[in-house]
Amino acid sequence: MKAAILEQINAPLVVGDVELTDLLFGQVLVKIIVSGICGSQLQEIAGHKGNGDYVPHLLGHEGCGIIEDTGHGVTKVKKGDKVIMHWRKGNGIESDFPIYIYKGKKIRSGKVTTLSEYSIVSENRVTPIPEDTPEHLCALLGCGLSTALGTINDEATVRFGESVMIVGTGGLGINLIVAATLASAYPIISIDINDNKKVLAETLGTHLYINCKKENIKEAIQTKLGISDVDVIIDTAANKQTSEETIELLSNTGRYILIGQPRPGESIELHNANHFFHGEGKVLRATQGGKFSPSEDIPRYVKLHQAGILNIDGIITHNMKLDDINKAIDLVRDGQASRVLIEM
Ligand SMILES: [Zn+2]
After folding, report:
1. Distance from the alpha carbon of residue 16 to the mean position of ligand 1, in angstroms
2. What is the model's pLDDT at position 12?
3. Distance from the CA of 232 to the center of ligand 1, in angstroms?
């Protein structure tokens, strides 16, 4: 079967022929319909995930597919079920790592990978969903959209009318705008270094879009919104300069949530750090997938979408084929795309 392979750090992915092996206890075989591309894959390609010693390896961690086969012990799904594939653990067995063969040798992979025609997945990394659930929604719910909803709802616990600033309007930032809108945040401020996301960000609910290469963020929120601080700041970029500039804007009940990861070894400074003691004490934290709990959260999110309350129109900017994986990665890296889907 065809799969995207990271053979070398900082090199283009190779689309090669990979052999599947027999399912082990607690594993399922999924025929993949569609996979998303997440910022994590860019970090893996750059070797920032501690993965440099494990290449060549497979990758991708949000997808939608159909169960083709199940290993011993699996009870959660059966052949023919439609599933969402996710990197966060849900109910079910945590299996051993899957075994694939590439160029006659074993090749590494996580307990879920999605950038291939088929995938061997641990039972706890798939969640069955109704057959009529749209595939593009399923792919987003594997990571990006679920992380955004969890970050706004569980991690930042945004209250009605609180101000939310989203730093970076890439694949995750765009999903965060949707989540902040759903939580009735006001105003919603989006920050980016490109203007090309402005229309989409505003359509999805952004009240003020700031290009921080052209405008000072603090001045812009003061002159255009009449506010001097922000209740919740979600940082998907983890750019040193922008992080330092925005941390200072936290209100006295402010929560600053890092989703984007700083590069290994990089420092972010807290200027005038005493301000963290204003009010009851501010919060600065990192989140792992917005505490997304697949078995509990996915059924709720699917229902919300079905009811027309969770609107994801416009989030997916590109649908591409596996052979074009490097073009797709470049679009994400250059900030030209929001969410890119790879159709198998
Ligand atoms: Zn992800």
Report:
1. 23
2. 96
3. 21
Q: Check whether 39 has a pLDDT greater than 90.
A: no
For position 70, what pLDDT does the model report? 98
338 and 274 in a single domain? The answer is: no
Last residue of a domain, which of 247, 269, 289? Answer: 289
Cα(226) to ligand 1 centroid in Å equals 35
Distance (Å) from CA 69 to ligand 1 centroid = 25
In the numeric block, the tokens 């909803």 are attached to: 149
Tell me the per-residue pLDDT of 74-102, one tens digit each, with 9 for 90 and over.
999 999 999 999 999 999 999 999 999 99
* β-pair type (2-6, 14-20): antiparallel
What's CA 28's distance to the chain center, in Å? 23
Closest CA to 83 of 139, 38, 27: 139
Residue 244 has a pLDDT of: 95
For residue 171, what pLDDT is reported?
A: 87
39 CA to centre of ligand 1 in angstroms: 6
Q: Same domain for 82 and 8?
A: yes
Distance of CA 49 to CAs 42, 45, 55, 263, Å?
A: 10, 9, 12, 9
Domain ranges, residue 265? 147-289
Q: Do 23 and 157 have their domain in common? A: no
Spatial neighbors of 168 by CB under 8 A, at least 6 apart, are: 191, 192, 235, 236, 237, 239, 260
Residues in the chain: 344
My answer on whether 151 and 285 are in the same domain is yes
How far is the centre of ligand 1, averaged over its atoms, from the C-alpha of 228 (Å)?
A: 32
Instruction: Examine the domain organization and report whether 99 and 203 are in the same domain.
Output: no
- Banded model confidence at residue 272, pLDDT cuts 50, 70, 90: confident
Q: How many domains does the chain have?
A: 2
Question: What is the pTM (predicted TM-score) of this model?
Answer: 0.95
Q: Are 342 and 321 in contact (CB under 8 A)?
A: yes
